[in-house]
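Recap from last week: sequence in, structure out.
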Amino acid sequence: MAIVMVAAINHYFVVHPQGVMPGQGFLKEFIKPFIELERLSAQMVPLSDHEREMAPSRMMMLQHICDERVGPKMTRDKNP
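Predicted structure tokens:
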């Protein structure tokens, strides 16, 4: 989760280069898919057959969102 928080703060400053530190609302929304992915992973054992069939597609979607959020970001060019 430390990597996620660093990625959240980095993303915030890429989007808001003149901003102050991100607030709880921004951080909550940014980490939501990571938390859901971990929660879903932890629940795999007690799932019903139907839920177990649906979980991989949900997990793949969440993993894609998470990968995009912690992956390399292009920063805005600063004007001299």
